[in-house]
Amino acid sequence: MKNFKKLMVTLLVAAMAFAAVPGSAFAASAYTPVTGTFGGEKTVIFPNYDQSQAHGDQTFTYNATYLPGLSETATGYAPAAPTVTNPVGTVTFTKSDFTSSSLSKTTGVTFDNITFNAPGVYAFNLVENGPGSGFTCNDNYTAYVTVENGGTAGILQIANVVYVKGLDQASPGTDTTKKSTAAPFTNTYADTTASLEVSKTVTGPFGDKTKDFEFTVTFTDITDDDFNAITYTATGNPTPTVNKDSANKTITFKLKDSDKVNFSTLPVGAHYTVAESNPGSGYNVSATVNSAAATLNNYTTPDKSIAQGDVVAFTNNATQSPVTGFVMNIAPYVGLLVIAVIAVVLIMKRRSTSNF
Questions:
Q1: Residue from 230, 192, 187 nearest 308 by CA
Q2: What is the C-alpha separation between 216 and 194, in angstroms, rounded?
Q3: Is pLDDT of 17 > 80?
Q4: CATH classification code of 193-318
């Protein structure tokens, strides 16, 4: 009888110990793993349409870093580590996503290469990798993914996901003001100033590389304060003189071969044209805007808005004919003159002879 009681006590203690062992102590093969999808929302905002067309083609990436310490705190024991195949989420936008009446776009950010092998609460830190030049984003979140047995024992499912703003330092839910069911990442394009470079090149064997050619940059859609805030750097020998006319929103200067003027602190979205004064006969004038050929109207570039940094390059190609061409053109007449002179001499000589 005593032996029986000892056996029962031993079995009871063993049963209690068995019940106290967390699920992670058993092989993950006891469950059917689940590869679930979780993530956040991505929004890109542009201040104006020109910026969206200049910078709308963007790819943003995000990392999901597993946090075992927070996972253990949230679960009550250390859950079996998830299998992370690829911790990177990617979102791609194109400039066609934006219109003049719709300057923002929202889409999902998903992490779908993470497999959960056992029940538990799994914590991840979601962070955006460098959002790119001109974009601002200071968002990061702690995601708590709760994995449970599904309707069929042993088959896992993601029950819910809770997001906490920032990298959480406590158990999930302690600060309810930071909890949400979404993780919105917002990127706003904030590059509000731009630059413009105007340069001159003279080509052709008889092009005058010391000649000054006059230029006028005319701005529209720009306030008085923004125009007055424009700064510039002129390059040349001697350095070109730059004159600003606030009343007419124009800037004039003269450039010879290899000279250029760089304007900075221009407001993004302002419009401009660059015009060269008539260079005189003997020159063909062409220009490129950001390396693309520009169609000139009376030596003036088409109206354009500044999206970031524009480069306008004018080329004057000398078309004068060489002096040797002029000599060749009068050569036949010189020959005729020589023949005429010889003929006159012969006639006079003949008359002189006949008089004797």
A1: 192
A2: 19
A3: no
A4: 2.60.40.1140
